[in-house]
Amino acid sequence: MPRLSDRICTLNDAGSDGWEVFYRAREMVAAGERVIELTIGEHDIRTDASILEAMHTSAMSGHTGYAMVPGVRDLRKAVAQRVEQRTGVPTKAENVLITPGGQAALFATHMAACQPGDTALYIDPYYATYPGSIRGTSAVPHAIRTRADNAFLPDRTELATAARTTQAKSLLINSPNNPTGTVYPRETLMDIADVCKQEDLWLISDEVYDTQIWEGEHLSPRALPDMAERTMVIGSMSKSHAMTGSRVGWIVAPKEAITRLIDLATATTYGVPGYIQDAALFALNAGPELEAKVAEPFARRRDLVLGILADQNTVTAIPSAGAMYLMLDIRASRLSGRDFAERLLDQHRIAVMPGESFGTSAAGHIRLALTTDDAKLAQAVRELCAFAKDLSQ
């Protein structure tokens, strides 16, 4: 066959997408084995029935044809209103593009920010698709490492040095963070904003977990002084409303950037189905009560796991202030995160994600998704801790 492009052949530069343990666990489940899956950020409580009913009603009413590529006007207005209420930054429908989930928004924002060959910065640990998304736009991904003993917060000096030496054009951040659960405090975001202004960077802020805050508060960097003009915010219905499979996300950005991003959407995704957008509009109009209902199990399960961990001293948790994950330090086991996860799956039928799936900074850690019922989660964590203790002796 004809030669494939370097762009597509190098999406997974290391030859791995980091999801091997997840794929193997799913194969075991398909073969009839019982596995406690704590891998991906997929709600165990599915999309609320009222949202599905709104989707069904819209589809049956005929909203199944081509929808407006930028998004249904009322949904764009609702997203703008939600963002303005939460951040205090004036936001209009013209600042919003509806996308097929947050993943499409990641790709689109880097297409907008970077020329082919430009460097795009991102923080390590990172969501597993980040480097591939950047490579897919023909930009060059450059990870900035962080440290577990500093809750995986980025260092201002290291950010500035990386931006300057690579002549980067963008910086991608994620708070609340997947995989670590870290919520960036105001001081960290101020440092990030200063670096972006000094080095003339686009800031791409992935805020899909903004409704899952357990300690402190969520601050969008777009709300900081002089940052609205250089920030593109990624949002999504996936985590806030348990609509992962519906694929509804958005970009909030300066009007000129949105205009160009609409051109990109016209040439690629051609928008999001109208009946799904109508369901998203219904969900947003349901207000914060529905969002709180979706988030509550993860707050409860976080406390449950932390209580179990407090009764032993082999496995420790990185401070988690948000999102549906806990990052656990298992270095006392003398195994890498990858080896620990593989052996835990083989010997105990418990599936977790190795820290190494999310970069090098989280080596010797595992990510625990709080995505199964309380009893199974408690059982899994107790077995995990006992497994780590046996290895450490």
TrEMBL record:
<dbReference type="InterPro" id="IPR015424">
    <property type="entry name" value="PyrdxlP-dep_Trfase"/>
</dbReference>
<keyword id="KW-0808">Transferase</keyword>
<dbReference type="InterPro" id="IPR015421">
    <property type="entry name" value="PyrdxlP-dep_Trfase_major"/>
</dbReference>
<dbReference type="InterPro" id="IPR050596">
    <property type="entry name" value="AspAT/PAT-like"/>
</dbReference>
<dbReference type="GO" id="GO:0008483">
    <property type="term" value="F:transaminase activity"/>
</dbReference>
<keyword id="KW-0663">Pyridoxal phosphate</keyword>
<dbReference type="InterPro" id="IPR004839">
    <property type="entry name" value="Aminotransferase_I/II_large"/>
</dbReference>
<dbReference type="InterPro" id="IPR004838">
    <property type="entry name" value="NHTrfase_class1_PyrdxlP-BS"/>
</dbReference>
<keyword id="KW-0032">Aminotransferase</keyword>
<feature type="domain" description="Aminotransferase class I/classII large">
    <location>
        <begin position="34"/>
        <end position="383"/>
    </location>
</feature>
<comment type="similarity">
    <text>Belongs to the class-I pyridoxal-phosphate-dependent aminotransferase family.</text>
</comment>
<protein>
    <recommendedName>
        <fullName>Aminotransferase</fullName>
        <ecNumber>2.6.1.-</ecNumber>
    </recommendedName>
</protein>
<dbReference type="Pfam" id="PF00155">
    <property type="entry name" value="Aminotran_1_2"/>
</dbReference>
